[in-house]
Amino acid sequence: MSADLHLHTTESDGTWTPEELVQEAARRKLTIIAITDHDTTAGIAAAQRQAPQELEVIAGIELSTSFPASQDEIHILGYWIDPQAPNLQQNLKNLRKSRIERAQLILNKLGKLGIELQYEEVLRFATREIVSRSHIASALQAKGVVATKQEAFVKYIGLGAPAYVERHKLHPELAIEIILSVGGVPVLAHPGLMKEINTIPTLAAA
């Protein structure tokens, strides 16, 4: 058994389409993968449809959360979810809307810094319905404002940078509740990046 349970596609901020991703997973002889795009389940059906018989594709999601008054962003993965559940889809729709609103606020801040970047330029890199800071970084790089996407985060759009804008996030316990309500298994993503590990017992209890 060989698995990768945290994969993104071009439906959010990945570099491969769902079809390309399962082909690459098969080429690398993985036997189980999970499609865990940010705030969308749009890539799951295509990945499951195109996957070879020997590759299991788990329906998943990744939700960004934070505790009130905390800057520690906590990502919650959900495995074996029901992608079509109305409760899940409504929450994802709200999260996608907040991403768009944040992107526009970031562009306004960049404009005040003398960097004119149009929303349409960002959409060239956001191939689907998710608009992220990664796409803004790509647009800044393409425009020649920065040499790398990492530089864009450090100088302009990362936490503490002049064009950073906080995005609406779910409370971690609500994210866990949503995943459980649609038959999923909630899992804490990349815990090594957490600043406040004393919140883990609270997450585990939920």
Outline the structure in words.
It is a single chain. By secondary structure, this protein is of the alpha/beta class. 41% of the residues lie in helices and 14% in strands. The chain has helices spanning 18-27, 44-50, 86-112, 119-123, 133-143, 149-157, 172-181, 200-205, and strands at 3-7, 32-35, 56-65, 74-79, 185-188. It has a five-stranded mixed sheet, with helices on one face. Helix 1 packs across helix 2 (44-50) and helix 5 crosses helix 6. The longest helix is centred in the middle third of the chain and has 27 residues, at 86-112. The protein is globular, with a radius of gyration of 18 Å. The two termini are 30 Å apart.
Can I get a quick summary?
By secondary structure, this protein is of the alpha/beta class.
Gap from first CA to last CA: 30 Å
The overall strand count is 5
Shape: globular
CA-based gyration radius: 18 Å
Attribute tags:
206 residues; 8 helices; five-stranded mixed beta sheet; 5 strands; alpha/beta; 14% strand
Topology:
Elements: E1 3-7, H1 18-27, E2 32-35, H2 44-50, E3 56-65, E4 74-79, H3 86-112, H4 119-123, H5 133-143, H6 149-157, H7 172-181, E5 185-188, H8 200-205
Parallel strand pairs: 1-2, 2-3
Antiparallel strand pairs: 3-4, 4-5
Helix pairs in contact: 1-2, 5-6
